[in-house]
Amino acid sequence: MKAMVIAAGAGGNELQWQDVADPVPGPGELLVAVKAAGMNRADLGLRAGHYERMPTKPPAPIAGLEAAGEVIGLGPGVTGFKPGERVMGMPSGAYAQKTLLHSRVALRVPADFSWVEAAAVPVAFLTAHDALVTNAAMQRDESVLVQGATSGVGIAAVQIAKLLGAGRIFGTGSRDKLEKLKPFGLEVGIDYKSEDFSAAVIKHSNGRGVDVVLDMVGASAFAGHMACLALKGRLVQIGRMGGLKTEIDLDLLSKKRIRLLGVTFRTRDVEEFGLLMDAMARDLMPAIESRRIGVPVDRSFPLDQARAAQDYMRSNALFGKIVLTV
Fold first, then answer.
1. Under a CB-based contact definition with an 8 Å cutoff, are residues 144 and 94 in contact?
2. CB-based contacts of 280, cutoff 8 Å, min separation 6
3. Is the dihedral of CA 184, 301, 323, 114 positive or negative?
4. pLDDT tens-place string over residues 2-31
């Protein structure tokens, strides 16, 4: 089969369009003919072994971790799925004509969804649900700040917060993208280029702060998050584009009784991963299937143009998801 393989190049790791061996499904695994692959910020690291603990492994260091496609083979012990069914999920090695997806973490594609729509669902909604519901345990009428609200995960998080009855929903991003996010449920948009987001949150919450912060930025925003969290607030750390290390004001942490929560899928086994998928599907799939919530697809590219697609992602011009089509 053809795949976008992570290989050493003159300037470091790069994507190369190569012939590789077809994957062979092991116990519990589905062999899937990929129809579309969702792109994510994690893909830009170009590290073979990123998501090294995901339930399935490709036959080569193939990029990508989100796909939708048709089941074409079953590994030993698979029950509940059959060839020809449409599935979506988070396999390793998604930038390929075929991939392996463990049956425990496979979702069926809604009947009237296109492949491109389906490939935009798993990562954004599972990540946002895990952060907001499983970890932050957001309650009805609590306020939420989504740092990086115009990303795919951020757009999903804003909609989940609204769906589950959050109070005020704050979000950061560039002004033009924040305007696009208002129909999705954003109430207070904060332009990170021209505003101090922490001061804006304090101002618009009448000095109280927010109950939950979902952080897609990392170290550069940490002090601001601590400052704008309310008493007994929860800070869920998701992305680290703004750096990996920072100082913590332990006195402020203690006085506000803040909870710091780190999330990743890399250190979860297939059963824990499956339980998270079950919870997301229970809470969100009816709304996803009816299109009450969804992440817009900004642009699609053919799979063999994945390098150009990643360059477009680096430009930060997109609003929503980029999808590769096979």
1. no
2. 125, 126, 129, 130
3. positive
4. 999 988 776 667 899 999 999 999 999 999
Q: What is the largest CA-CA distance in the chain?
A: 60
Residue that the structure tokens 């590290």 belong to = 47
* Each residue's pLDDT tens digit, 278-296: 999 999 999 999 999 999 9
Distances (CA, A) of 250 to 199, 221, 290, 307, 313: 21, 16, 45, 43, 36
CATH superfamily to which 2-120+296-325 belongs: Medium-chain alcohol dehydrogenases, catalytic domain (3.90.180.10)
Q: Which CATH number does 124-262 carry? A: 3.40.50.720
DSSP-derived secondary structure letter, 48? T
Backbone φ and ψ of 300, nearest 5°? -120, 150
Q: Where are the domains of the chain?
A: 2-120+296-325, 124-262
Amino acid found at 294 = G
